Amino acid sequence: MSSSLANRKTFDIAWKDRLMAWLAGDNLGASFQKITRALAIPLLAILIFLGLWSIGAKNVQTSLGQFPGPVAVWDQGMTLLDEHKAERAKAAAFDERIQKRVEKAIAAGKPQERIDQIKGRQYTGPATFLDQILTSLLTVGAGFLVASIIAIPIGIVCGMNTAFYQAMNPIIQVFKPVSPLAWLPLVTMVVSALYVSDDPMFDKAFLNSAITVTLCCLWPTIINTTVGVAGVSKDLLNVSRVLRLSFMTKTIKIVLPSSIPMMFTGLRLSLGIGWMVLIAAEMLSQNPGLGKFVWDEFQNGSSNSLARIMVAVLVIGFLGFLLDRAMLMLQRAVSWDRNAVVR
Amino acid sequence: MNSYLNIDHVSITFPTDKGPLTVLDGVDLKVEQGEFISLIGHSGCGKSTVLNIVAGLLQATEGGVLLQDKEVNEPGPDRAVVFQNHSLMPWLSVYDNVRLAVDQVFKRSKSKQERHEWTLHNLELVHMTHALDRKPDEISGGMKQRVGIARALAMEPKVLLMDEPFGALDSLTRTHMQDSLMEIQTRLNNTVIMITHDVDEAVLLSDRIVMMTNGPHAKVGEILDVELARPRDRLELAEDPAYNHYRAEVVKFLHERHHQPDVPDSKPVDETKPEKGKIRLVS
């Protein structure tokens, strides 16, 4: 099938073409021109931004030193990578040592329990920056997934049943604007009270963050799904009546496919909100992710802290952008409505 | 004598903000099997309402519709509808759109292979087998309407109801579609009720033309028997005096007699011209 994701207008550059068309006249080959122009303008904008940032930063003196400019941030970024590599090297060395001890123990004929005990030793080093990125992504993924599983059925029922919608609407409208920082204490207390087990599968901080993400990113999906389901074309519903489709068949074959574009719009909005919520929630719940990194650096108060925080800010932004793009590609792949502009 | 389809004293009243609105008041029509009926009338006279009542999408407040002496007040594939806006599922291909109807109607009576062949057969009737895998937004308006017709035919309906099926198409496409429809009608001999605004189309395609009075309180005004031999060729008929007579009758009804069907030669009052000898102030 030729509807591959690459064929979609992922990098819609029509207006850029027109703008640049009069700037340069030569025809080097349309696609080469398009690509260079599509890259040139954003690149220029980024360079200007970096320049302004650098100038602005020089003029701001904080209690932790000068506000970091692009160079300082870049340096700290590299440092974080080096620290990550160093930690991994340490972990690898530790594993080697353990392996040697296990071999020695087997050679010396020590009992199995002793060998298992040696094998079971974990490397307890601090989480590196990349580990924290992974934790954040996993947490937002978990929270978003749970939210979607709850929100989509509710949205479908709300869309199909006016009474249910009228019942749910006040609740949705009141809880939608609530900040994650307000939910967090409640979530923490409830999780502490309910999640008591000797061998917990999930870290409490992880649960707190994930549940807070869920609570905040339910709402766009519910609302958009409701709109999508309620807005199924009357003509299509008449077709289903003439065909005498059963309720389930009608829902699965007509209502759901018809509302998938709106559903994915909701999911995409939810993921964006979830990512923002996560960072805030992590700061307070101490889930070992990017939020905790920022918080720790702030509490640390070293001369590098601001630059490291800036690195985190840029990484958070970039990851959010990637998550959004991923959802966008997914949305384009399932959206049958060619007339809708999906960007 | 009981006819195949009997629309018996159908009236419908809608509750509106300004009070109840009686759109149809005692519509009576008897249709025989294999007849092609055109329903023609001014905009807003209630033609679509009649069709929707026969289809079962609306309930009449008085009277009813009998199909083979059984009352029908619910939609069903025995009265297939071709909508003015094709109403194809935009996420399904041409083949899948028709297959959806076939699967629903024949899931017990035909095997998978038979249903596949039946789908292809109906798409062949409308000359759409070259575009089986295309989605509705990849085909033209005329093609979409063909698929809509194929879907309706695939339900093997007892009555085929068409609500201005060619209204959204340009003139040329419309003539092609009319020819296709005549060809299908020759092959299948369906019972068809078609709503149209086009007088030529009505005279060309139908066995009888039912002309409705203006709404509200619309009813059947006149019924015209079109006794032109089949198969009908539009180029031949263009010079045919009988064809032109029928055409004139319809046009006369629409322009003159739709107000008072039982008063011959009545003309509607033309309010823009002043009465002789009197000066009318133009407000």
Radius of gyration of chain B: 21 Å
The largest contact between protein chains, plus residue counts on each side, is: A-B, 20 and 22 residues
C-alpha geometry of chain B: globular
As for the CATH topology of the largest domain in chain A, it is MetI-like fold
Helical content band of chain B: 25-40%
Task: Report the C-alpha radius of gyration of chain A, rounded.
Answer: 26 Å
Helix-strand pattern of chain A, N to C? HHEEHHHHHHHHHH
| Shape verdict of chain A | globular
User: What is the name of the CATH class of the largest domain in chain A?
Assistant: Mainly Alpha
- Classified in CATH, the superfamily of the domain at 1-73 and 192-283 in chain B is P-loop containing nucleotide triphosphate hydrolases
**What assembly state would you assign to the polypeptide chains in this entry?**
heterodimer
In terms of per-residue confidence, which ranges of chain A show pLDDT below 50 for 5 or more consecutive residues? Answer: 1-8
Tally of contiguous helical segments of chain A? 12
Strand order of the largest sheet of chain B: 6-7-8-3-9-10
CATH level 3 topology of the domain at 1-73 and 192-283 in chain B: Rossmann fold
